[in-house]
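Quick one:
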Amino acid sequence: MQQSSFRVNKGSLIRPLREAGRCPTLFAMSFTLRQLQFFVAAAEQGSVSGAARALSISQSSVTEAIRALEDDLGVTLFARQARGVSITHKGSAFLRHAQGILAEVARARDAFRDEAAQAVGRLSLGVTSLVAGYVLSDILARFRRAYPGVELNVIEDSGEYLQHLLIGGELDVAVLLTSSVKDRLALQVETLLVSPFRLWLPLGHALAQQEAIAREELAGYPLIQLMVDEIEEATRTLMATIATLPRVTFRTRSVEAVRSLVATGAGLALLPELVYRPWSLEGDRIEIRDVSGDLPTVQVGLAWRRGAPLTGPALNFVRSAQGAVSAR
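Output:
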């Protein structure tokens, strides 16, 4: 066993030693963790020989350590007997604090070991297609910079299937639309951002002259509808709030197709602000405006299996995601 050079905070021992009844050499204390370990072992084993066997060291090493500790404290910790030692009243009072010091040191070491363990390992991550294109890149970049030693396995699939994998323990964490998570009893959900629906228009459109557009004003205008599983329910809810429905002229699963069609004047679109970009792939401008009224929103966030402790890499990914979204 290696002798530690750790020095105990003397101020923290004022009360324990006063309770023990003596502290004349308080400011000269210099006992080591090694001495505390040998003292605790002797107290627990009831003999110096038992402590020596438990620690796999010589009896003389235990005896010397305890004697040095007693000299340092100025108290008698053990009464020597023919068949071992018995702890004194002052020794018993000091034992509680010695055990507490050793326990705190062990916890400090474990914390560093846990931190080192979290810096490596494997993370199984799920993500839906919409979130993969508009949220995941920032989160992953931040996580990779902080934890380059973690092996990542990322699966892109529908929100419903990712929830199935999470519940089955096949994924650690998923990044998805938390507004579409169904089984809240089986899954822990944390929403990171909320995205309202906005109206997309081509540059120079008549409605673009207004800062906010009433839903009834959309009647008669052609509408481009994005058919992505993740937002279909929110889109249906939105459309149900419009008395006279716009005429849907094009349905697509491609956000880029919606962007191009809107930018070239083929129609308008009602989509979450999350997926808005001001330019189409062809370089045409797209504007957005608020739509008045109480519109549904989509929430993006994280989900993991409820009741299952997160692994070190998973916990760090959650923290990285929180930081990345806060910085957006």
